[in-house]
Structures are given as structure tokens and as C-alpha cells.
Amino acid sequence: MPFVNIKITQENGEPTSEQKQELIKGVTDLLAKVLKKNKASTVVIIDEIQTDNYGLGGKSITEVRKQK
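^ that's the sequence the OP posted. Answer follows.
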């Protein structure tokens, strides 16, 4: 059973429900096409990460983006 975990930042109202559905469908279709995997047993999980919850260079991404 294929298991795909997508991690994406959650900001500015995105990803929307429609965008997440498109990601799930697209990844499922790609695995079926390239690896000949069964779509019915393909699991796709999307983890949305707020920019306060990860950092770079000792600062949260929220702070890094404010400085740009």
C-alpha cells in the first residue's frame, strides 16, 4: 500500500480544500501511472504546518518572512 505524506505551509488561506483535493488526486494518479499502484489502496496525508511551528537560522519562518 503506497503511503505519501505531503508537508506544506499553511498561510494566506492556502492550501484551500480544493487545492488539497487536487493534490490528493494528482499524487494518487501519479503513483498509479508511474508505479502501477492501486488507487484504492493509496493513502495520501497532508500535514499543514503553520509558519510559527518551524524555523530557519534560529528564527521562526514567520519572523524570517517579516524581515524580507
